[in-house]
Design brief:
Layout lengths: L1 E6 L5 H15 L3 E6 L13 E7 L7 H9 L1 H6 L2 E7 L7 H18 L6 E5 L1 E2 L6 H13 L10 E2 L3 H13 L2
Parallel strand pairs: 1-2, 1-3, 3-4, 4-5
Antiparallel strand pairs: 6-7
Protein backbone atom coordinates (compact mmCIF):
# COMPACT_ATOMS: atom_id res chain seq x y z
CA UNK A 1 0.00 0.00 0.00
CA UNK A 2 0.99 3.61 -0.52
CA UNK A 3 0.41 5.35 2.84
CA UNK A 4 0.62 9.00 3.90
CA UNK A 5 1.35 9.75 7.55
CA UNK A 6 1.00 13.38 8.50
CA UNK A 7 1.49 14.65 12.02
CA UNK A 8 1.69 17.64 14.31
CA UNK A 9 3.89 17.48 17.39
CA UNK A 10 4.40 19.92 20.25
CA UNK A 11 7.26 18.43 22.26
CA UNK A 12 8.31 15.69 19.86
CA UNK A 13 6.58 12.51 21.08
CA UNK A 14 3.98 12.53 18.31
CA UNK A 15 6.76 13.01 15.74
CA UNK A 16 8.53 10.00 17.31
CA UNK A 17 5.32 7.94 17.18
CA UNK A 18 4.68 8.96 13.55
CA UNK A 19 8.27 8.06 12.60
CA UNK A 20 7.87 4.70 14.34
CA UNK A 21 4.65 4.04 12.39
CA UNK A 22 6.37 4.95 9.12
CA UNK A 23 9.35 2.71 9.85
CA UNK A 24 7.15 -0.19 10.93
CA UNK A 25 4.87 0.07 7.89
CA UNK A 26 7.87 0.39 5.56
CA UNK A 27 9.21 -2.78 7.15
CA UNK A 28 5.93 -4.48 6.33
CA UNK A 29 6.49 -3.72 2.65
CA UNK A 30 4.38 -0.58 2.35
CA UNK A 31 5.48 2.67 0.75
CA UNK A 32 5.14 5.44 3.34
CA UNK A 33 5.44 9.18 3.04
CA UNK A 34 5.88 11.01 6.37
CA UNK A 35 5.05 14.73 6.34
CA UNK A 36 4.48 17.34 9.01
CA UNK A 37 0.91 18.68 9.00
CA UNK A 38 2.08 22.21 8.19
CA UNK A 39 3.73 20.85 5.01
CA UNK A 40 0.90 18.53 3.91
CA UNK A 41 -1.57 21.07 2.49
CA UNK A 42 -0.41 20.38 -1.06
CA UNK A 43 -0.53 16.59 -0.65
CA UNK A 44 -2.83 14.94 -3.14
CA UNK A 45 -4.55 12.46 -0.83
CA UNK A 46 -6.20 10.58 -3.68
CA UNK A 47 -2.81 9.14 -4.70
CA UNK A 48 -2.54 7.28 -1.37
CA UNK A 49 -4.20 3.99 -0.49
CA UNK A 50 -4.42 5.02 3.16
CA UNK A 51 -3.90 8.17 5.25
CA UNK A 52 -2.97 8.41 8.93
CA UNK A 53 -3.24 11.78 10.69
CA UNK A 54 -1.47 12.03 14.04
CA UNK A 55 -1.64 14.73 16.69
CA UNK A 56 -1.33 15.18 20.41
CA UNK A 57 -3.68 16.55 23.00
CA UNK A 58 -2.71 19.61 25.01
CA UNK A 59 -5.36 21.23 27.15
CA UNK A 60 -8.04 19.18 25.39
CA UNK A 61 -7.07 20.43 21.91
CA UNK A 62 -5.00 19.21 19.01
CA UNK A 63 -2.39 21.32 17.21
CA UNK A 64 -3.70 24.13 15.01
CA UNK A 65 -1.80 22.87 11.97
CA UNK A 66 -3.45 19.45 12.24
CA UNK A 67 -6.92 20.95 12.74
CA UNK A 68 -6.39 23.24 9.73
CA UNK A 69 -5.19 20.34 7.57
CA UNK A 70 -8.09 18.08 8.55
CA UNK A 71 -10.52 20.93 7.89
CA UNK A 72 -9.03 21.67 4.47
CA UNK A 73 -8.95 17.98 3.49
CA UNK A 74 -12.15 16.82 5.24
CA UNK A 75 -14.04 15.90 2.07
CA UNK A 76 -11.12 13.88 0.71
CA UNK A 77 -10.41 12.26 4.09
CA UNK A 78 -14.03 11.15 4.31
CA UNK A 79 -13.61 9.28 1.01
CA UNK A 80 -10.16 7.88 1.89
CA UNK A 81 -9.05 4.94 3.97
CA UNK A 82 -8.08 7.15 6.86
CA UNK A 83 -7.33 6.91 10.56
CA UNK A 84 -6.61 9.37 13.35
CA UNK A 85 -3.85 8.73 15.87
CA UNK A 86 -4.26 10.69 19.10
CA UNK A 87 -1.28 10.89 21.46
CA UNK A 88 -1.91 11.80 25.10
CA UNK A 89 -0.77 11.04 28.61
CA UNK A 90 -4.36 10.13 29.46
CA UNK A 91 -4.12 7.13 27.12
CA UNK A 92 -1.53 5.68 29.51
CA UNK A 93 -4.19 5.20 32.19
CA UNK A 94 -7.34 3.17 32.58
CA UNK A 95 -9.68 5.67 34.23
CA UNK A 96 -13.07 5.38 32.49
CA UNK A 97 -13.91 9.06 32.98
CA UNK A 98 -10.60 10.14 31.46
CA UNK A 99 -11.14 7.83 28.47
CA UNK A 100 -14.59 9.37 28.03
CA UNK A 101 -12.80 12.71 27.99
CA UNK A 102 -10.52 11.44 25.21
CA UNK A 103 -13.57 10.43 23.19
CA UNK A 104 -15.03 13.93 23.76
CA UNK A 105 -11.81 15.52 22.47
CA UNK A 106 -11.97 13.44 19.28
CA UNK A 107 -15.67 14.34 18.88
CA UNK A 108 -14.85 18.06 19.19
CA UNK A 109 -12.06 17.60 16.64
CA UNK A 110 -14.52 15.93 14.25
CA UNK A 111 -17.12 18.69 14.67
CA UNK A 112 -14.51 21.42 14.21
CA UNK A 113 -12.89 19.88 11.13
CA UNK A 114 -15.90 18.30 9.44
CA UNK A 115 -14.08 14.95 9.33
CA UNK A 116 -15.13 12.05 11.52
CA UNK A 117 -12.27 9.56 11.59
CA UNK A 118 -13.52 6.02 10.94
CA UNK A 119 -10.62 4.65 12.99
CA UNK A 120 -9.17 6.33 16.07
CA UNK A 121 -5.97 5.07 17.67
CA UNK A 122 -5.22 6.34 21.17
CA UNK A 123 -1.52 6.14 22.01
CA UNK A 124 0.09 6.97 25.34
CA UNK A 125 2.50 9.87 25.19
CA UNK A 126 5.41 10.96 27.35
CA UNK A 127 6.56 13.48 29.88
CA UNK A 128 9.14 15.40 27.84
CA UNK A 129 10.80 17.51 30.52
CA UNK A 130 13.70 18.19 28.15
CA UNK A 131 11.23 20.22 26.06
CA UNK A 132 9.32 22.06 28.80
CA UNK A 133 9.87 25.57 30.06
CA UNK A 134 9.82 26.24 33.81
CA UNK A 135 6.04 26.72 34.06
CA UNK A 136 5.10 23.73 31.95
CA UNK A 137 7.61 21.59 33.85
CA UNK A 138 6.01 22.65 37.12
CA UNK A 139 2.49 21.94 35.78
CA UNK A 140 3.49 18.52 34.45
CA UNK A 141 5.12 17.58 37.75
CA UNK A 142 1.87 18.54 39.50
CA UNK A 143 -0.17 16.43 37.05
CA UNK A 144 2.15 13.48 37.60
CA UNK A 145 1.83 13.81 41.37
CA UNK A 146 -1.98 13.81 41.08
CA UNK A 147 -1.76 10.52 39.18
CA UNK A 148 0.67 8.97 41.64
CA UNK A 149 3.38 8.88 38.99
CA UNK A 150 6.93 8.95 40.20
CA UNK A 151 9.00 11.14 37.95
CA UNK A 152 12.39 12.73 38.11
CA UNK A 153 12.30 16.38 37.07
CA UNK A 154 14.42 17.05 33.98
CA UNK A 155 14.21 13.39 32.89
CA UNK A 156 11.84 12.36 30.13
CA UNK A 157 9.49 9.46 30.83
CA UNK A 158 7.83 7.61 27.99
CA UNK A 159 4.54 5.71 28.27
CA UNK A 160 4.10 4.72 24.61
CA UNK A 161 3.44 0.99 24.23
CA UNK A 162 5.26 0.26 20.97
CA UNK A 163 4.11 -3.38 20.74
CA UNK A 164 0.47 -2.35 21.17
CA UNK A 165 0.94 0.32 18.49
CA UNK A 166 2.18 -2.32 16.04
CA UNK A 167 -0.92 -4.42 16.71
CA UNK A 168 -3.17 -1.39 16.27
CA UNK A 169 -1.56 -0.59 12.92
CA UNK A 170 -1.90 -4.21 11.82
CA UNK A 171 -5.61 -4.24 12.70
CA UNK A 172 -6.15 -0.95 10.86
CA UNK A 173 -4.43 -2.18 7.71
CA UNK A 174 -6.18 -5.54 7.81
CA UNK A 175 -9.47 -3.64 7.69
CA UNK A 176 -8.49 -1.45 4.73
Amino acid sequence: MNILITYASTEGQTRKVARYCADYLNGQGHSVELVGAQDAYDAELARFDAVLLAGSLHGGKYQKALVALATAKAATLTQARAAFLSVSLTAAGDDADEWAGLADCVSRFARKTGWTPPTVMHVAGAFRFSEYDFFKSWAMRWIASQKGEEITPHEDKEFTDWAALKKTLDVWLAGT
